[in-house]
Amino acid sequence: MRHALLAILGAALAFCVASPATLLAQAQAPSSGPAAGQIQAMLQKQAADWNRGDLDAFATGYKNSPDILFIGKDVRIGYAAMLARYRQAYGTRAKMGALTFTALAVQPLDARFATTTGHFHLERTAEGGGNADGYFLLVLEHTGTGWKIVRDDTTALPAVIK
């Protein structure tokens, strides 16, 4: 467990100090193995759920636990707080827009934990808040129901005014 925590902290530090170009270059390396395929499939399912406007289905990618951690504009602890934040910020189809994940890189830490880095893009109308982009670092746990996000550190890039 100690090795897994050290690996998670190391990955988080590397993510924080890496430039976007460095992150994308590193993320282009193929992720392989069963865990990588399962995690990538789960994230693509999340994007499909989001794009159908189904926040409840999207949220099933997170572990339904009171101690998961979501860090974005603020810090949310627990599944209920995470889901409430998504509902508050993305309560309409216009605000949800169309979600895509790219540059996914999965790093298994052991049989139970893995990290994933990547880029997100929200294609939205001006009414929905305009397009949004950013990077994320996820810590995932392999549970009885598959891989679930237990920590989500997402950083949005500043909006570009056109």
Report what the structure shows.
- By secondary structure, the chain is an alpha+beta fold.
- It has a single domain, classed as Nuclear Transport Factor 2, Chain: A (Roll), CATH 3.10.450.50.
- The protein has six helices and six strands; from the N terminus they run ααααββααββββ.
- Strands 2-1-6-5-4-3 form a six-stranded mixed β-sheet, sandwiched between helices.
- Strand 4 and strand 5 (132-143) form a beta hairpin.
- The mean pLDDT is 86.
List the helices and strands and how they pair.
Layout lengths: L1 H16 L2 H8 L6 H18 L3 H5 L9 E3 L3 E3 L1 H11 L3 H4 L1 E11 L4 E11 L8 E12 L2 E11 L6
Parallel strand pairs: 1-6
Antiparallel strand pairs: 1-2, 3-4, 4-5, 5-6
SSE succession: HHHHEEHHEEEE
Q: How far apart are the termini?
A: 48 Å
Number of helices: 6
CATH topology: Nuclear Transport Factor 2, Chain: A
Residue share in β-strands: 25-35%
Q: How does the helix and strand content classify structurally? A: alpha+beta
**The CATH class:** Alpha Beta
Descriptive keywords:
6 strands, 6-stranded mixed β-sheet, Nuclear Transport Factor 2, Chain: A, alpha+beta, 6 helices, 162 residues
In short:
With 162 residues, the protein is of the alpha+beta class.
